[in-house]
Specification:
There is one protein chain. 38% of the residues lie in helices and 20% in strands. It is of the alpha/beta class. The two termini are 39 Å apart. The strands form three sheets. The protein has a seven-stranded parallel beta sheet with strand order 9-8-7-12-10-13-11. The longest helix has 17 residues. Helix 3 runs parallel beside helix 5, helix 8 runs parallel beside helix 9 and helix 8 packs parallel to helix 13.
């Protein structure tokens, strides 16, 4: 049996128009839906559930993509998503990428209440404070996922989690770990500290050196890393909220590291320390 309907959906269809408008933040917020483009994101969306309900509600696919990714289309159908066969021009009209890959999913919002993040007693958290670039936000989310973080928090001054560029940059990690959004930075710090989490700010001008902190063995406990704006970092009032301001040492001649690279270094440093002997995780824990 064909994985999709044999009839092409019209570019003037109400379904196409509804999907197309999700490129704009105000409509995403109104409909509480967002776009996930490409095979990796759609695959993860099809597999994800919230309280037993599927996240993926609709899938637009070209004939070629439906054949190439028949397993993903099948998973979308199994998840109860409406699957529409569409011409390449329709996919291009819905997509926000220059070279669409033939699959565009419509997904329900999946952010997690901050109270639920705290209730889970996380050991490693990335907090994005005033991060405005969606590509950076998505990449930090991907780094947090890879490092084994239990949550990501986007403050109220940060970019929209469901910006198409942020979703793409997360490469499916958006569906892997809890993400709380719209949390004031003071509330984020206070809540995490009350949950027993040490708050570290990542800043190139920090008083503490990451290598030295690792050597001292001070990185093994529950930790939240605060990452600031791409251009000007963290303001002094935010730095003052933290337990320490830590710099990634520059051993060569580079002027600095970009946000996502610094986040990866910091998160992996904490992950390694936590998995070492005496850390807050077992060395055998996956």
């Amino acid at each position: 049996m064909s994985p999709v309907s044999p009839e092409l959906i019209s570019p003037r269809s109400a379904r196409v128009s509804a999907a197309r408008r999700l490129a704009r933040r105000n409509f995403r917020g109104k409909d509480r839906l967002f776009l996930a483009e490409g095979p990796q994101a759609v695959r993860e969306a099809a597999a994800h559930r919230i309280d037993g309900a599927p996240v993926l509600v609709e899938l637009f696919t070209t004939v070629e993509a439906a054949e190439r990714y028949a397993d993903i289309v099948g998973a979308a159908r199994d998840a109860g998503a409406r699957v529409h066969l569409a011409a390449e021009e329709v996919i291009a009209d819905i997509s926000t990428t220059v070279t669409p890959q033939g699959l565009v999913g419509v997904c329900r919002f999946l952010d997690t209440p901050f109270a639920d993040v705290l209730a889970a007693r996380p050991k490693l958290v990335a907090v994005l404070a005033n991060v405005r670039d969606p590509g950076n936000a998505g990449t930090v989310l991907r780094c947090a996922d890879a490092a084994g973080a239990e949550a990501v928090v986007l403050t109220d001054a940060s970019v929209d989690l469901y910006n198409p560029k942020a979703v793409r940059a997360s490469v499916g990690s958006l569906f892997h770990l809890p993400v709380a959004v719209g949390v004031p930075v003071e509330q984020a710090v206070r809540g995490l500290r009350d949950a027993g989490v040490r708050i570290l700010a990542a800043d190139g001008a920090g008083d503490h050196d990451l290598d030295q902190e690792l050597d001292k063995g001070s990185m093994g406990g529950p930790t939240a890393w605060l990452f600031g704006n791409e251009a000007w970092g963290l303001p002094e009032e935010t730095r003052a909220l933290t337990d320490a301001v830590v710099r990634v040492p520059i051993h060569g001649q580079a002027e600095s590291l970009n946000l996502a690279t610094a986040a990866a270094v910091c998160l992996y440093a904490s992950a390694r320390a936590q998995r070492a002997s005496g850390g807050c995780r077992s060395v055998t824990e996956s």
